[in-house]
Amino acid sequence: MPPSPSSRSNPTPTPAPSPTPGGGSAAGSPGQGNGAAADPSQPASRPTGGGDPQETVGLASRLAALAPYPFTRINQLTYNARRAGRDVIDMSMGNPSDPPVQSIIDRLTEAANDPRNHGYASPLGMDALRREVAARYRRRWGVMLDPEAEVLCTLGSKEGMGHLCLAVVGPGDDVVAPAPTYPAHLSAVVLAGGRPVAVETTDPAAFLAGVSRLCATRVPKLVIVSFPHNPTGTVLAEGAGTTTADPRPHEFYVELIALARRHSFLVASDLAYADIAFDGYRPPSLLAVDGAKRCAVELTTMSKGYNMAGWRVGFCAGNRDLVLALATVKTSYDYGMFRPIQIAAITALREGDDAVDTQARVYQRRRDVLCGELARVGWPVTPPRAGMFVWAPIPPLAPAGKPAAGVVPTANGANAGPPDSMAFAARLLEEADVAVSPGAGFGPSGEGFVRMALIENEARLRLAARRIAPLLAGGQRA
After folding, report:
1. Is the dihedral of CA 371, 225, 329, 275 positive or negative?
2. Largest CA distance in the chain
């Protein structure tokens, strides 16, 4: 993986950026083309009526701890481009553009036509669905789970993480989050009253060392880990537990659980990209470690591999006390997911392994096309081993006739130093109609990079590279 622009070795408290839809990304969703998008310039609150002067609304102080939304400018540029009829190639949002397999949709339709399935559901999830989750853990990672006490259904892994933090994090508690940071991890901690501590994660060994150093002065209440990592695509090194034929626990997780038990902190593994891996690699599970269930839980989702992002199906598994605590919070907030969705998810878990593997190959081909085409036009990037994003260092740019806002030209028209990620992303939109997520939106250690989601088809990925080429070569877009 490309190195982080920051060589920070000590864990450093960081302010939390605001929650970001679809995995911390800019506006729009795949497949929209030139269709309508919500206007990001419109306020989301404090409506007024009848022409009366707008009154100040008193909001909870916890909202003040959330940093301003980091992708507002890119959202606005994307919205403006689409309103103007321009064809934006959108690689900003980790929102799957492919549908679930037809048999899952058919099962959803059948269940929705049953009048018995339209009442409130249990916030814990259907027994049969939790049994299928336990069966998949056993089949995929050799992990034995009690579906009644060690598995809980969530409305996606993001909701699970947010409510888990409400269940276990108190005011002033330190919580380690991987950096660069998926914004929802930080916002979950901040809204629970905790103190996020960002630790560089692009080198997993350095991450462990950073957590160990932190424990020497102030033991965190919770450590969040996420491999494959969003946004960087960092994975744990090949070794135990990284192939389908090897059920052994990975040494990183063995060391992390040993550290957690030595210092009495909790661990939450966000394994959202478990199903999207390439070249024979398989993301390992934290729960494969003997003793992990004494202090840890893992969150998974059907959003990516099963193309069920909008269905909001996720799971929390592991320590039964943490599962129970999360269930206690959930019973105060929701009545669980729609029963027909749960019934369709049962079918997907029972019958969908081949479809998941097929979808992973689709992402692998897109990865190969995008990375290959970018290299061909002069922007070499490191192909990820897993996940649905390419994390790319900003390349040197040729002089631009009309610099993007925020890029300061020198007297001869060349940029004075490399552009920051927000300015670079803005220039891609303004001059190439290509939308990406600026790395700065994932915290200070993301600066100097952009994240590109593998959600457009191969032809449009090739077109994106052709559009980007003139910005690298100094010519005009064809």
Report:
1. positive
2. 72
Asked if residues 160 and 326 have their Cβ atoms less than 8 Å apart, the reply is yes
Quick check: 184 and 159 in contact, CB under 8 A? no
Distance, CA of 205 to CA of 84 (rounded, Å): 48
Amino acid identity, residue 448? G
Whole-angstrom distance, CA of residue 188 vs CA of residue 161: 7
The helix (H) or strand (E) run that includes residue 140 is helix 127-141
pLDDT number for residue 54: 66
Task: Based on DSSP, count helices (H) and strands (E) in the chain, helices before strands.
Answer: 13, 13
Q: Cα–Cα distance between 356 and 197 in angstroms, integer?
A: 34
For residue 58, what pLDDT is reported? 84
Per-residue buried b or exposed e for 295-320, using 16+ beta carbons within 10 Å of the residue's own CB: bbbbbbbbbbbbbbbebbbbbbbbbb
Helices (H), 200-319: 204-217, 251-263
CA distance 46 to 41: 14
Q: Is 272 exposed, middle or buried (0-12, 13-18, 19+ CB in 10 A)?
A: buried
Give the pLDDT score at 289: 96
pLDDT in the model for residue 220? 97
Name the helix (H) or strand (E) containing 21.
helix 21-24
**Percent helix, strand and coil across the chain, each rounded to 5?**
40, 15, 45
Instruction: Report the relative pairing of strands 266-270 and 296-301 from DSSP bridges.
Output: parallel
Contact, 315 vs 153, CB < 8 A? yes
* pLDDT at res. 64: 83
Buried b (16+ CB within 10 A) or exposed e, 188-217: bbbbbebbbbbbbbbbbebbbbbbeebbee
Strands (E), 39-108: 89-90
Tokens read off for 190: 């901040």
Name residues whose C-beta falls within 8 Å of residue 407's C-beta, 6 or more positions apart in sequence.
400, 415, 419, 423, 427
Residue 19 to residue 162: CA distance in whole angstroms: 10
Report the pLDDT value the prediction gives residue 401, as an integer from 0 to 100.
53
pTM of the model: 0.84
Rounded to whole angstroms, the Cα distance separating 404 from 472 reads: 14
Q: How many residues does the chain have?
A: 478
pLDDT, residue 399, reads 65
Partners of 89 in the beta sheet? 434
What is the C-alpha separation between 231 and 439, in angstroms, rounded? 8
The low-confidence residues of the chain, meaning pLDDT below 50, are: 1-49, 402-418, 474-478
3-state secondary structure of 12: strand
On the question of a cis peptide bond just before residue 247, with omega within 30 degrees of 0, the verdict is no
